[in-house]
Amino acid sequence: MEKPSQDIIFIVDDSKTNLEYLLTFLTDAGFSVFAFQSGEELIEKVTDMTPNIILLDVIMSGIDGFETCHILKQSAATKDIPVIFMTGLSEPVDKVKGLSLGAVDYITKPIQYEEVLARINVHLSLQKEIIERTQAQQSLQKLTAELEHRVEERTAALSESLKKLSNAKLQLIQSEKMSSLGELVAGVAHEINNPLNFITGNITILEEYFQEITEHLKLYEEKFTDPGEEIRENAEDIELSYMIQDLPTMISSIKLGLERIREISLSLRNFSRSDSANKVSLNIHECIDSTLMILQHRIKASPQRPAIEVIKKYGDLPLVDCYPGPINQVFMNIFANAIDAFDEEITQSYSDENANQPKTQQITVTTYDIPDYGIGIKIADNGLGIAEDLIDKIFEPFVTSKSRGKGTGLGLSISRSIIVETHGGTLECDSKVNQGTEFTIKLPQ
Predict the structure, then answer these.
(1) What is the pLDDT of residues 371-424, one digit of tens each?
(2) pLDDT digits 0-9 by tens, 288-347
(3) Which residue segment(s) compose the domain that 345 sits in?
(4) Domain for residue 204, yes or no?
């Protein structure tokens, strides 16, 4: 059996007596020992031979032990060699200084054989354990790298197919989700309409009743000019005159609120039309208005920002044969992306102390007729814009310009599929950083 190599120990001490003593008993203990009388000699030798451990005297002529240790720890080749200081200094500050320079231990002079041997054996064991763990870690890293490379090679052949399959699956899930959402919204709109019609009908009757009651009270006051103290006091207590003046205003406000609910309900029904199995002739302006109505809660002012200004430049458009649900989904994706960009812009302006006063955030919708083709729709915002390295692949699946954790990167991919593949139109994007983004949709008749 091959005998294991001896551990190498370097001893540095300008005292010949200490060197001879250490050299003798450490050699007898089975170590390969080399002795030096200065830090300079050690530094010169250590470039040729790497010891397992260094015993280093602190106080020496020339460069002392602290400086020698500092030089060793600055070199990549010697920084991991354990250094044990030998010193007669007993002040804690001296020991702290040595340990801060990278030493692993102290041996106090006068040197005791048992102490030196015990400390050397402890740190040699620790060093060997560290080396073994490092080697094991390196082997594991190498094995991991090889496995990763093999997995990458095998994955590359399947990635495109899996990507297409995943994209198709997600689009199917998204379409199913939109279908379910449409059914839910349509149901909600229907449920709203029943009590809405009831309340609207009763408000009209209530208004007529109030007018008749008011006329009756006026007639009563004309015929009975002295109704008595009790009736006059009661009229004052209930503020009858104020009620008669205020009730018409209240009824008018209620009618306005009901009309607003009716508009929202109509927008919900238009957005969630369930006849998407077949193309129908659509008024695109109604689709856009319905989508904006549903997004009104995000467009209006919030504690973080003022309201987003929506500018409509509607042209004279013919009806276009489309699938209502998918077309509304496209408008929803584009408008929601613009609002997300505005929200992120506000967040950045809050975090940047030197940011300028936020500008008026605008979404401009322009529609126009395209003779002998169909219609065009431009939806532009003056938000953050899209980075140049993303603009060419913004319609690819899983590509998003939003912050990490926001957005799936599927909205625009699905939108392009709806416009191009389902309707035979075009969807293009033009964007400049810090100036805004514009989407152009063209739909054939």
Answers:
(1) 989 999 999 999 888 888 888 888 877 666 655 545 556 778 888 888 988 889
(2) 988 888 788 888 888 878 889 999 999 999 999 988 878 888 898 899 889 888 888 887
(3) 278-445
(4) no
Q: Return left, alpha or beta for 381; rule: phi > 0 is left, psi -120 to 50 is alpha, else beta.
A: beta
Q: Does pTM top 0.70 for this prediction?
A: no
Q: Which of 49, 134, 45, 127 is nearest to 84 (CA)?
A: 127
By the 10 Å C-beta count (0-12 exposed, 13-18 middle, 19+ buried), 336 is classed as middle
Give me the residue label for tokens 């276009």. Answer: 320
Please count the structural domains in the chain. 2
Report pLDDT for 375: 94
- Token pair of 84 as six digits: 């044990």
Q: How far apart are CA 243 and CA 229, in angstroms?
A: 20
- 312's enclosing H/E stretch is strand 309-313
Given a contact cutoff of 8 angstroms between Cβ atoms, the answer to whether 22 and 112 are in contact is: no
Q: Which of 92, 111, 130 is the last residue in one of the domains?
A: 111
| Phi, psi values for residue 96, rounded to 5° | -60, -40
Angle at which helices 65-74 and 92-100 cross, to 10°:
20
In the sheet that holds 8-12, the strands lie side by side as: 32-36, 8-12, 53-57, 83-87, 105-108
Compute the radius of gyration of the chain from its Cα atoms: 42
Q: Is the peptide bond before 110 cis (omega within 30 degrees of 0)?
A: yes
* Beta strands across the sheet bearing 362-370: 309-313, 362-370, 374-381, 436-444, 426-432
From the list 428, 439, 422, 408, the residue with the least C-alpha distance to 167 is 408
Q: Are 86 and 109 in contact (CB under 8 A)?
A: yes
Parallel, antiparallel, or unpaired: how do β-strands 53-57 and 83-87 relate?
Answer: parallel
Q: Evaluate whether residue 81 is within a structural domain.
A: yes
- For residue 220, with 0-12 CB atoms within 10 Å meaning exposed, 13-18 middle and 19 or more buried, which class applies? exposed
Q: Which residue, chain included where needed, has tokens 């198709």?
A: 168
Q: Which amino acid is at 52?
A: N
